[in-house]
Hints:
Number of domains: 1
Helix content: over 70%
Number of helices: 3
Distance between the termini: 37 Å
Amino acid sequence: MQENLHSPQRLLIELRIEHADLNSLIDRAGQQLPIDELALRRLKKRRLMLRDQIAQLEMMLDPKEPA
């Protein structure tokens, strides 16, 4: 049971959820008039880091076969 909580598949799901949450937050922040540019840049940077982590996990879990 403990292994399931820390499995790469579960981590991938959690990262995808966090990425989707950040997308929503960034969209909402862009619609507000007084935009905190620094906070928005930090959110976007975090979103990019998550995307990279997701890509690495996906490659680890499902490596491409050599041609």
